[in-house]
Amino acid sequence: MDPAPGAAEQRGDQEAGSPEREPAPWQALPVLSEQQCGAVELVLAYAAPVLDKRQTSRLLKEVSAVHPLPAQSHLKRVRPSRDASRPHTLEMLLCLAEPAVGARSLAELLPWPAVDARGLGQPFLVPVPARPPLTRGQFEEARAHWPTSFHEDRQVTCALAGRLFSAQERAAMQGHMERAIRAAQQAAARGLRAVGAVVVDPASDRVLATGHDCRSPATPLLHATMVCIDLVAQGQGRGTYDLRPHPACSFAPAASAQAVRVGSVRKLDEDVDTDEDGLPYVCTGYDLYITREPCAMCAMALVHSRVQRVFYGAPSPDGALGTRLRLHARPDLNHRFQVFRGVLEAACRRLDPDT
Ligand SMILES: [Zn+2]
């Protein structure tokens, strides 16, 4: 087991090459999609006061039949009046408004005889949430405009509250990030950029590859993520780069039980993903731990290799998993993966002055 935080100071020494102990507790927070973290988009709609409450259920039925709102099923049709000085206590959502609209009468909005508009007052325009809220924060913002239903994704709520991972999982995550930090320190000792990474099979907690940034004028693409993906591929008998000059970059050959060879597919489920050659993607089901947020090239390599989750320590000004882009969560890419930031963030920030 790793010593408790502060143990190194108590010993009065620090093992050469071991990562600095994290003085502050860290949190692995999810990096959500644009849709999940964006502001609530509003559209204009017509609503009308319900002057005769006894007509409410009939009006609700008739208005909903004439103006169904299939894309806005999150909106409640009726809300309590927000103006205590007015005589009516309820207001009813009638329909969405066209762009560049003005005032409309009940007769224009509710065709007779499909709707008998008796019991309703003069329509008014009101901004309502265009889409269902995806997070509790969006829900709170949305309902301030118009009553909205919310189907909470408990995993997202839990993750946002920093409660997704158990103490045991956090200990394993910390161990993997400490390994990535050691790799980054070894890179720095060789005059390379201090970015380290580790690929882990979360099913067994087995480390499949450890690598660091190896870029040079001759190999400008060898960022730590690219190195690690190639190392995993080498463990599968594939791979492209000669990384032997970098002894801290290593891979574990695929174990026989899960060997990924031509003709032998590592089954994650019945419908394992394969590339054009019929081979499984390099990182299907695997996790990447990396000290610094990957760039766009590396993020796309992670999409192509079908990684399952990425945990990074420090954000990067050119990062593509949360800072500049959110490539892991784009609906128009054919693979998406989960991203968490902040694992041993303080120690990771200290590695690389640019982060
Ligand atoms: Zn990169």
Could you walk me through the main structural features you see in this protein, from its secondary elements to its overall organization?
With 355 residues, the chain is an alpha+beta fold. It is 25% helix and 16% strand. It has helices spanning 7-11, 34-37, 56-66, 106-109, 136-143, 154-160, 167-189, 224-235, 296-304, 345-351; strands spanning 29-30, 42-50, 78-80, 90-96, 124-129, 196-201, 206-212, 250-251, 287-292, 309-314, 338-341. Strands 1-11-10-9-6-7-8 form a 7-stranded mixed beta sheet. A 4-stranded antiparallel beta sheet has the order 3-4-2-5, with helices on one face. The longest helix is centred in the middle third of the chain and has 23 residues, at 167-189. It starts with 6 loop residues before the first helix and ends with a helix. The relative contact order is 0.13. Bound molecules: zinc ion. Zinc ion binds next to helix 9.
Pick out the low-confidence regions.
1-17, 256-272
Let me know the average pLDDT: 87
Order of helices and strands: HEHEHEEHEHHHEEHEEHEEH
Termini gap: 29 Å
Percent range for β-strand residues: 15-25%
The total strand number stands at: 11
Number of helices: 10
Radius of gyration: 28 Å
Share of helix, binned:
25-40%
Strand order of the largest sheet: 1-11-10-9-6-7-8
